[in-house]
Model the fold of this input.
Amino acid sequence: MRFLFVGDSMTIGRAGDHTWRYRMWQHLEATFDGAYEIVGPRSELYVPETAEEPGAFIADHADPDFPAVARRHLAGWGEGWLHMAPVIGPTIAEHRPDVLLVSLGLIDLGFYTNSGQTAENTRRFIAEARVAAPAVRMVLLPVIPNVRARTDAPFAAECDRFNTLLAAAVADLDAPASPILLAARPPSYALDSDTYDGTHPSPSGEHKIAAAFAEAMHRAWGIGGRYAAAEQIAPAPTAVVR
Done:
């Protein structure tokens, strides 16, 4: 089975981060029964330079024992559904993933598109993925609002509205041939302890995001096992009423 991580800055990580991708690799190593592969066109972490200038990318990782073949992904600093929808088809055609683990939306809502436009790009992403691989499976994580939502009520409302639209898209587009899961947003996720800057996950946040994906796949599809201490980290995947 081949897994592709798709995401924004919370997924690519920056120099010094382990990333939730690393936590998921550890989980798959411990629980997956059979052969699996992590695929994707990229493998780097982000390195900030200055507040005014774009950053660079490096292949080094916080844990040198994280194998290079498991570091692969389709994630980018500052990239969202808007950016991934046009490239997911060619990426799938080249790397042939069976399962997409997708964490996108926060950067879209913060800088590029409103909730409705972001939902349209989500549906485009799903459609393009299925053109490339009609049987591809997807697990989508709702947006976890960052610290901006504490003081920006319209932004907080857009995050909530997008998550409602995301659930509707999953309900509309889920299909037996190409199932889609809506992972549960970790209920105990706390910006003050699960991020290092109000947005990007700290080690505990990395575990909680990985657990949300792992629990969804395990409970719905029997993929992998329970995430370590998952009963404290993530609930069952969100039920979607059709």
Remarks:
- The radius of gyration is 16 Å.
- Residues 190 and 205 are 8 Å apart (CA to CA).
- The chain is about 45% helix and 10% strand.
- The longest strand covers residues 2-7.
